[in-house]
Specification:
By secondary structure, the chain is of the alpha/beta class. It is about 30% helix and about 30% strand. It contains 15 helices and 25 strands. It has helices spanning about 15-20, 40-50, 70-75, 105-120, 130-140, 145-160, 180-185, 255-260, 285-295, 310-315, 315-325, 340-355, 365-370, 370-375, 380-390, and strands at about 10, 25, 30-35, 60-65, 90-95, 125, 165-170, 185-195, 200-210, 220-225, 225-230, 250, 265-270, 270-275, 300-305, 325-330, 355-360, 395-400, 420-430, 435-445, 450, 455-460, 460-470, 480-485, 490-495. The strands form five sheets. Strands 16-15-17-18-14-19-20-22-23-24 form a ten-stranded mixed β-sheet, with helices on both faces. Strand 4, helix 3 (about 70-75) and strand 5 (about 90-95) form a beta-alpha-beta unit. Helix 4 (about 105-120) runs parallel beside helix 6 (about 145-160), helix 5 (about 130-140) packs antiparallel against helix 6 (about 145-160) and helix 12 (about 340-355) packs parallel to helix 15. The chain starts with 8 loop residues before the first strand and ends with a strand.
């Protein structure tokens, strides 16, 4: 009985890319890195090469009509993955420009074969392969046929030499489905750079990777001083869900006993809670109470604050929580983020700190921090964010600012209140010529919760909830009149 052939996967050294590829680059495969100008193709190729190259696994990098090697290396050495000690030992650069003057693919192939036999590489890169395509088109006779023969022979030769090959090509669109290289390639990585309104974004797609299950779709990536970092698009996996089923004891305290009672015993573990209200009503203070209570109980937290600078955020009580290690902070100072970047950082911190509580303050600032392309799909982005986090078993508290209107009852400025499991509404009311703060529980799914509107104050010890109120019919006329309620609290079942 025959056994399956095991194909070794080579790690690319690019954060997030191996996850998209299905584990790494298949050894001895024939791959195409293609995309639009300036999208990062050469940078990706170099990052993979410097990560994999060693005295035991040497790499040959051929340049055709692209950048001369010296110019290319001048810029590539600015990245942290660049290792000068590998040049001319583990990595060798060869310029093929003079061999392709008249579209003589046989001459180019012969030169490649000569260099490969001499250097004995395990990795071979050809940049820019698109130059060969253009050269073939400029030859009137049999240029296209010569190119096809060249590609087929190159693939056969590289496989025979047991080399993993990468062709780098510049394409404006995913056009050449009939092109020989698209047909012969075992793997195709497509990269693009585009501008939408005032934001520039880069995305990557694994079009195919033979023999392994790659992650579908377009995925955001960034180029920094460390090189390329890919942020795989979040895909919900209910098979690996850790969301806790509600039991009698699986609830988190909010840090205010009266509020816990109003919510039916606290916030169920793994729920998402939306706290809505106008500016200054106490939403951020409630977040601090939630995180501080978690720290007291040994439940680490993570906060992504999109409306405050680090100096504003890390003072007082939150600074103490960060200093003692019970709270971690996501850096949200960079604008034009993608939902996948934010989620990537959140998930990594949650796993690193074993966090149980997550705060996003606020959704308004969160929306502004996103790239314009993601703002247009904010509800879909928020759905993926909340679903991934709650499926990890963490409990999420989000805030959203609402304009305070006496005659208009709303619980979300985005029409996305249905995405959350629980809602708290905070607002102002006028009583005897003074503004007072009130809080109410709008919903807590599968829970008996209070339906009262209660007064609350903000003290130096946090939020203190007081008496419940009755609402007179005058509130509907735009001139609300509220009075303390007597009697027992009423409760309703959330949806």
């Amino acid at each position: 009985m025959s056994k399956k052939v095991t194909i070794r996967q080579l790690p690319t050294g690019v954060d997030g890319l191996d996850e998209l590829l299905g584990g790494g680059i298949p050894e001895f495969s024939f791959n195409l890195i293609a995309g639009t100008p300036g999208s990062g193709k050469t940078t990706l190729a170099h990052q993979i090469m410097f990560s994999l190259a060693s005295p035991e696994r040497r790499a040959l990098f051929f340049t055709v009509l692209g950048e001369p090697p010296l110019k290319m290396l001048r810029y590539q050495q600015q990245f942290s993955y660049f290792d000068i000690d590998k040049i001319n030992t583990s990595i060798k650069f060869v310029n093929l420009a003079s061999d392709l003057l008249d579209g003589q693919f046989e001459r180019v192939l012969a030169r490649i074969i000569e260099e490969v036999e001499s250097f004995g590489p395990s990795l071979v890169f050809v940049d820019s392969f698109r130059s060969m395509v253009q050269s073939a088109k400029s030859v009137r006779d049999d240029g296209a046929r010569g190119l096809q023969h060249f590609i087929q022979m190159l693939g056969v030769q590289m496989t025979g030499w047991q080399a993993t090959t990468f062709l780098i090509g510049e394409y404006l669109t995913q056009e050449e489905e009939s092109s020989p290289v698209f047909t012969v390639a075992d793997g195709i990585i497509w990269m693009l750079q585009d501008v939408h309104r005032d934001a520039m974004f880069r995305k990557l797609q694994v079009i195919k990777m033979r023999g392994q299950a790659q992650r579908p779709g377009l995925h955001t990536f960034r180029i920094s001083s460390s090189g390329i970092e890919v942020f795989p698009r979040a895909i919900l996996s209910y098979e690996n869900s850790h969301r806790t089923e509600i039991t009698g004891n699986s609830r988190l305290t909010m840090g205010e006993p009266v509020l816990d009672k109003m919510m039916g015993g606290g916030l169920p573990v793994g729920y998402s809670l939306l706290v809505v209200g106008p500016s200054g009503c106490g939403k951020s203070i409630l977040c601090t109470e939630f995180l501080a209570e978690g720290a007291r109980l040994g439940e680490p937290g993570v906060i992504a604050a999109f409306e405050k600078s680090p100096s504003q955020l890390l003072n007082g009580r939150l600074k103490k929580l960060v200093d003692d290690g019970s709270l971690s902070v996501i850096d949200t100072q960079v604008l034009d983020l993608s939902i996948d970047e934010i989620l990537h950082d959140l998930v990594n911190l949650i796993r690193k700190k074993n966090a149980k509580r997550v705060v996003i303050d606020s959704l308004s600032g969160f929306e502004l921090a996103l790239m314009s392309t993601f703002r247009e799909n904010f509800r879909e982005s928020l759905y993926r964010l909340v679903s991934v986090l709650t499926n990890m078993g963490v409990t999420v508290l989000m805030t959203a600012e609402l304009e305070d209107r006496y005659t208009d009852l709303r619980f979300s400025s985005y029409g996305n209140a249905f995405l959350t499991d629980a809602i708290l509404a905070m607002r102002y009311v006028e009583i005897n010529g003074q503004f007072k703060r009130v809080i109410s529980v709008v919903k807590v799914r599968a829970s008996q919760h209070s339906k009262d509107i209660c007064l609350f104050d903000i003290t130096d010890k946090g939020i203190k909830i007081g008496k419940a109120l009755t609402r007179y019919h005058g509130i509907l006329s735009g001139q609300p009149t509220l009075a303390p309620k007597s009697g027992e609290q009423g409760f309703s079942t959330g949806d």
